[in-house]
């Protein structure tokens, strides 16, 4: 079990006549991720919470008045990963997928799997099906795309990234998801914080990664290669970045860069923390069923 | 109340080694649409049904063996529309939208509302909010896009259609949805059969239309102008065409054109049927809540 | 695969000022039970349907006006049971039960498992856990309770039945459910039609039976011993009879006895029907997850 | 808005071979109740969380090993009640109730509304329908039942309490719920902490109260009259006490009395806290829809 603590500090200047805000920064409650403490501080009152029963995303909504809006949140979570031997994980025939998994076969705003079908089949169609094929897709993405900060914008899609050959974690995730779906492997987008990111990549920030449905569970993949999967804290999940922005602001708003941090902490029993490491096992924090 | 009967006949030649199939042709059970009879005939056994609890889509899945696959389905539905005076319908602030409605604010595969934001605000941002603004969007789409059979393909998006100026019902729907979302008005894609389509448009076919969330209900709009909203039977709904294909076939399949038909029928009490007509009222068949 | 057809005919005389009605007679859509055709005829219009997303119960609601109310319904269903070797089925520790299964551990109106705890532990606590223990409970119920038509009333509970030693199918089910829950085995009440009932028991009627959660699925048990489990068509499921009455009438109503029938029919391919038989296998029509 | 803080401290001695535990002590996330901070400390690891999507109950499950088990939890919540003029609240016809509300019309383990139907109709059937009738039921319960600590046991039902004329908060709630349901008014059981309880009633403890569905929302009632409705923090809700025990322990366990506390705290803006008071308004913290 891993115990991680993270903090998020968001600041906005809201102009008249105010703005509707949706935040998705709270740690998800999943069967493998237990929130043991959290603290939320909002400088404006009357926020409304909502938890998506399927995706477990925790949305916070607010009609912000003109002036400063500051959201501070911190959480400590215990993660007890479901672990599996990669070679034991297989792809499922579509007729055996649970109903709620089906939407993750279809193209979405930033993952145009319909346009990548022929290429994906040519490239990966003859590989042995299962976890190894998904790893092959991940490796291929890492070879084709180069990580560079600020190299993409909000409208950049998987096809755009394949064309430019450069992107940030969000773009690596979109390409990998699009390729999986093009091969009829359910894949979805996840956001969170990552413990253990290389400081050379810049200050800590929200991270985007991938969950792939194999053998009746969602397994973690980090196509950008910048995180340690065991050190990922899940915040949100959805079809792609359109579904899980950490903040969506509807109105005249000036934003400051978010300030985030994450560290490993000792358990309540005083034992030293188990630090995330690059395990060869496949990891999952959610079967995706209630 | 309107009583309508429709029939669907789908034929496929499945090649080795077989194909996974997902069909979405059954009439949705909504609070205002009651399925009074239906009949399904599948030439291959072992189909599995699943009903999406939020969207009410009824998916039929099958691992089809090589050979012929034929799906025949017919249903009779009673539709008792919720009717409202258009001028009474208002847009809702984002903080008041029910959680399950939020995804319909975000861009999706074929509705790139993020790319259309500036244009939509310039064009419609100063209009009085409410049903009239949505009608203005619908009228604008009808002026900018020309209906032409077979003028688009499966990967055509709202931006593609705005560029080409031509499309089919699916494309009209995508453009209208993208514009609504760009203005923070929740909008979704619906498929079904339409009673009363102009025979000059060709043989009866599946139809695509739009539902917009106003005053806590989903209201019907037919941006292509080819149907009578009161004559729409709902089959599926989703973010865009990616979610509600009437058939998705994973494997080597040769398809024949679907054969569909729809007619108005008399009620069980023998009274003549109430025929759909172009009412000025706003119509809804679903509040979108359980 | 078994193909069964059933029909239900309900008649009521509604007195002034009318009555609200809730019906639960339509065949459930489960992963193993596919409704291939159905027909509903209501003598009064404006009924509203609702499908419970967890339980799959299909409720039909109506504000009936004074006068006659008649509901005729018929359905043909294909049942492809999930089959398991009984000895392979185990009880699950409470910490491994899916969340939606937990309510079926608790006492309910007609299944006072809290009052039966000590007795159940004394009687069955030392038995080997698993399918065999559930069978032992079923056998014990059959020995202690004698079937007699019209021997119980709507308020009769499991404890009442254990005291009187007599009951109908509903009462056998309540006793078995209460005993299972007293031993921390999730159990629920199911209603439906049963093909193959002994004609000596009277005219065909709705049937009540039991589903027990073992090895991550709900398995069928017929404690009254009057049905062939393979011939059960599922209509509703819930905690006990309070949840799944075939008709609940709120207001001044005079009811006639329901007329029901069920038969086996040939498949669409013309093959003779597979008749239900007393298989030694454990049968399930629902994993209880979406 | 009211900001309240509560703390719960539970201690158990688990004997061999261990025990499965289900806890329901965490503050519910409702649209009107925002958890701004919380802290959970469990002396044994590997707990699993689950949130019921309909009821919002947050269940914590654990396979506890022999030895001490201690659960400490504290939370600060902001409650922004939905407020309504009581005279404006009406009862809904059954055909207009949302589907998920229907189960709260039916009898449950400790609320035998089926047995109380005739009495309830005789007593309250002629009263004007709406909030005033529900208040009349609450007043009647307070007159018939006397509060006395430790006067009931876990199997005590509404009918038992009406016979004995004595009970604790749980029993007052069960009687009021049973009478509402007997009159076709949906009612459910809620548990939580209550700020402002009379210290003469003993040390702070978990509280049980009632939610009644009127005009499309669940409104708070405190039939025992020992709490200030505005000071109720919601933990769980369900059909009756069977669904929302704060702790359910399956195995050999010796429990100590729970230690709980609650106080009002100042908001983050430093303003003094708004103290709960006996408002004449009707209060709701949940519409019961997603």
From TrEMBL, chains A, B, C, D:
<dbReference type="InterPro" id="IPR038765">
    <property type="entry name" value="Papain-like_cys_pep_sf"/>
</dbReference>
<dbReference type="Pfam" id="PF01841">
    <property type="entry name" value="Transglut_core"/>
</dbReference>
<feature type="region of interest" description="Disordered">
    <location>
        <begin position="267"/>
        <end position="290"/>
    </location>
</feature>
<protein>
    <submittedName>
        <fullName>Transglutaminase family protein</fullName>
    </submittedName>
</protein>
<dbReference type="InterPro" id="IPR002931">
    <property type="entry name" value="Transglutaminase-like"/>
</dbReference>
<feature type="domain" description="Transglutaminase-like">
    <location>
        <begin position="161"/>
        <end position="225"/>
    </location>
</feature>
